[in-house]
C-alpha cells in the first residue's frame, strides 16, 4: 500500500510540474530545486526526485552537474510521449499543436485503415464491429461518445496486426480526446456516425483503398475545422490539406 501511495504521489507531481512547464510557468524564472519543489507540493525527497527523473526522461528537464535542473528547449521535448502531447494540447495555444498533430494523423491513420482492411483477422474485425456498436449506442445516448470513437480508432490500429501501428494507440487516443471534443462542438454527431459506418463497412469488406480515402477525408475535414477556428483567432497554422492522395 505504501509503495502504491508513493507512486501515486510521484505521478501527481509529474502531472502538476509537467503541466506547469508546458504552460510556461517557469519561462521567466529559474526552475526550482528538488527541495523547493518538495516544499511547494508537500512531497518528500524520494517522490520529488523520482518525478524529476520522469520529466527528464520525457525531455522536459535536464540535470547539469553543478548547475542543477533546467528546462529543456521545446525542440528537445518528447512530443510523442502521451503525457507531453496531452499537456501541449490542453494549454491555451492548443489550436496550433492540434493542427500539427492532425497533420501527422494524415500520415498514419489512412494507411492504418488500408492495412486493417487487408490484414484484419476475425478477432480484429470483431473488435471493430464492437467499437462501431458502441458508437451507435453512444449516438442513442447509451454510451460515452468520446470513449466509443477512441475505441474504434484503437481497434483499427490493432487490426493492422503491425506492432508499430499498434504501438501508436496511446499517442493517437491522447490526441483524439482533444480533437473529438473540438469537432463535436462544430460537427453534427449524425454526420460523424454515418462517416464512421462507411469506414467500417469498407474495412470489413476488405476495400483497402476505399477505407484509406474515407479515413483521410475525415481527418482532412477535421483539419479544415481547426484551421477555420484558427483563422477566427487570427492564427496562421498552415496550408489546407488535400482530400486526394498524391
Automatic annotation (TrEMBL):
The keyword Transcription regulation applies. InterPro entries: GntR_C, TF_FadR/GntR_C, Tscrpt_reg_HTH_GntR, WH-like_DNA-bd_sf, WH_DNA-bd_sf. Residues 7-74 form the HTH gntR-type domain. GO terms for molecular function: DNA binding; DNA-binding transcription factor activity. Keywords: DNA-binding, Transcription, Transcription regulation. Gene3D superfamilies: GntR ligand-binding domain-like, Winged helix-like DNA-binding domain superfamily/Winged helix DNA-binding domain. This is FadR family transcriptional regulator. It comes from Caulobacter sp. 602-2.
